[in-house]
Fold Beta-galactosidase.
Amino acid sequence: MKLLLSKAVTLLCAASALAKSRRGPRVQSVILPRATQNNGLQDIVTWDEYSLMINGKRLMVFSGEVHPYRNPVQSLHLDIFQKIKAMGFNAVSFYVYWGIHEPKRGEISFEGFRDLQPFFDAAKKAGIYLIARPGPYINAETSGGGFPGWGTYTPGLWRTSNTTYMEAIEGYIKTVGAKIAENEITKGGPVILVQAENEYSGVQEPYTEDFEYHKQLLQLFRDSGLTVPTITNDAWPGGHFTSVDIYGYDSYPNGFDCSNPYVWKSDAVPEWFWGAHQGINPEDLHAVYEFQGGAFDGWGGSGYAPCAVLTGPEFERVFYKNQYAMSTTLFNIYMIFGGTNWGGIAHPGGYTSYDYGSVIAEDRTLREKYYELKLQANFLAVSPAYLTSRPQNIYDTQGSFTGNSALKTTQVLDVVGNKTGFYVVRQTDASTNALQTYTLQLPTSIGTLSIPTIGGSLALNGKDSKIHVVDYAAGSTTVLYTTAEILTCLKIPPPVAKVLSGTGTIQQKSLASNSLALQYKTTGQTVVQVGSTVLYILDRVNAYQFWVLHPPTSGPFAHYSTENPIIVKGGYLLRSVSIRGSTLSIQGDLNNTATFEIIAPAASSKSVIFNGNALALSKTAHGTLAAKRAAKLPAIKLPNLSSLTWKYADSLPEIRPGYSDAKWTAADHNSTVNPTTPSTPVVLYAGDYGYHTGNIIWRAHFNATGSESAFTANVRGGTAFGYSVWLDSTFIGSWAGDAVHSSYESTFKFPLLLKEGSGHVLTILQDHMGYEGDWWAASDSFKEPRGIHSYSFVGDKVPTVNVWKVTGNLGGESHVDRTRGPLNEGGLYGERQGWHLPGFNDARWAVGKPTTGISSAGVGFYRTTFNLNMPKGVDYPLSLVVSNSTTNPLYRSQLYVNGYQFGKYVNHIGPQTVFPVPQGILNYNGLNTLAVSIWAEGSTGAKLHSLALQLTSKVESSISAIVNQPLTAWAPRPGAY
Ligand code: IPT
């Protein structure tokens, strides 16, 4: 039986195992796959020019990027993995952030949230393969691009084979390498590939690509016990670092400016990648290790909502399908879940949220683009012919097969199986919103057909792309061609012997003795039976509702099964299915009433359980199972933060008379290896003294000449930083910061002439927005200092500073809080004292609210506690929400939840006002401590305009139990100052 279908969006086909197909001949030269390659170290992960293979079986690696360190709640990894798996993906790619594992040189830690093992274990539990990307460089919009702070004062050019650099990375690579190696698939773990470096593509002149570095780095990987194939992600298909096993590249074709998300460049769709891949590594599969799944946003940016539009369903349809048109068989979407730059993770170009506009939002809810991507992943998961395909007309697509020059059609043929064709149609002008109508002249096994064969035409509306298949095996039926797109196919006996549910008109025509054409005009869902084949003709909204799940088998890889699919329609998210005897259990999440349709073998679905409760089953008109289930969404009452009792303390005692900075670090270095030469008598780079994150405070002691009238400083802090200056107890001004400057020179007038010989202190509080990345190898740009680059006094006779003192976080590289890691706290007095931590005794503090604030320049610290009592069986994500203050707008605020910094808010720069805080950081059943710092940069003080705890979604959920991260309480901090 051959079928052809017209004019609908999606097709879900169920074909009888009993049906016999007869295939017509089609002349096509057969290209056999070349000998399978492996790297000689293992034979589980192998590959050839078409695809990766695991245990000899080809697979489309459909992967999404997730960063474990951007989600410190270890018990939430499974939720993310299950959501990715339910989308039809089989892999996750992840970075490891060296800087948080080795904050002090030689002291490597994988404690607490930094432990990778729970991440590995959760992947295995969800049936997700892992692509490990331990750097040492990662970029990733992290502070220093992943490099540790101490790198800024380590000599030698980084990202080269320079010995000092190679010595610096050795301990980390060997340790992380061994941890990944223990979790390789060769040892029963989920890791299938390991990436060396990151975008080793641009090298700062006069240096060039350092092949010796590649060699030594790969050797370090091997020395640590890694045996799976090595990969690297070139920033574009430029042929760098090809000595890895499987070279691949990255692409972000819609860029990172989210402010005009509906505007695409007319030539935005990259067509040259196939040619480049053929030129660089034709012997390997076409692998894309990062393809745009969203965009990062920076200080003063547009926020992430428009980034999700820029890279929304239309983008996925057009740009991802263009990659399929180039036979991409390893496809990693960056990001699939962005997460949070909590603590000091962010680079200066980013704020707390790393939502990225990705398919899974920062609060772990699913965007529409999730459902679109689910259609694509499910289609390719059941299209083995794609895995041995080649594009045929890559430079000759315009007007091809349609005769319409407004369209480009790529013919992708299975050159090994010699049967199936994929025709990817898209707009010639990617920027257009025009409707194009077309017909296709396609070669098929029964000759060239003009499609639609029953007359009429097809349509492509605006920013869209479609894949039409030809001679496509659907079970044992062959689909001769489709004008619809295929969602999934499975082999089960059709439930009834006759046709139809749904509305619409269907025409049919016999094309050959065993070929029948169907042409239809339907809405919603229409089910058609032809012979022993059942077709679901679906519009997009209906297609979005289908889930293809695989019951676990047995053994260590039980959850990786791709056999025995169960198809269920309905629900916000269906995570997994299992079968026991004749009972089918479904685990899923609902946000309203679900109308389920269950397509499963009758013998194993006599009864159906959803989240532990039996469903009342009925039969659909076409014989599948149906059930309704209302979401259980209990009401909750959230604390009103503004009516809680808040405590207040001044967090800038440094400006009080008599304050002693005796315990502070003396900034007394006379030289630095930092490539930026200081213009100060002593080095005033915070990093040189071991302070790499958060607020930094400088103190300059001098004796007045009597003629000084002002102080000038050039301070560097990274984009959107600010600084405030006090002369003794008097505020003399701020550079409050903007979205542009990463350093700024300003002059601050003294309020009066000082008495000659009198002793004074200048206190400079500055923000540190994270270190720059090091995108250009050998550039050492991450070493760009944070601190004071130059200073001077104004006056006839200027004083000299006798002593400079500096502090950042308590302990510097020997950070105090082992639970929350090296980047969580900065150098504010309150942070050094641990005021942000649960259990700190604030009984003697005054009463005062952050929404009342402080009335002069300075820093205030606020604390409160509240209880939560959230119901079980739901996923109710919460956010802290602030609103913009227009009176006294110049201020910076940090939000601490149970000691974890989950918000850095700069009122006058923005854009973020909603700060998601995951369950596990928030204690959903018990006490929570909320602390807020406010640094008023203006002389009239500052306050939060509002602060609230808000639900961002309500879902009944089968999410696994969430265990709080350690919410370690305050303990005395010996030596704290
Ligand atoms: C590419 C990096 O590899 C990745 O770490 C991340 O920074 C991403 O971009 C952007 O979010 S770099 C690419 C834009 C050239």
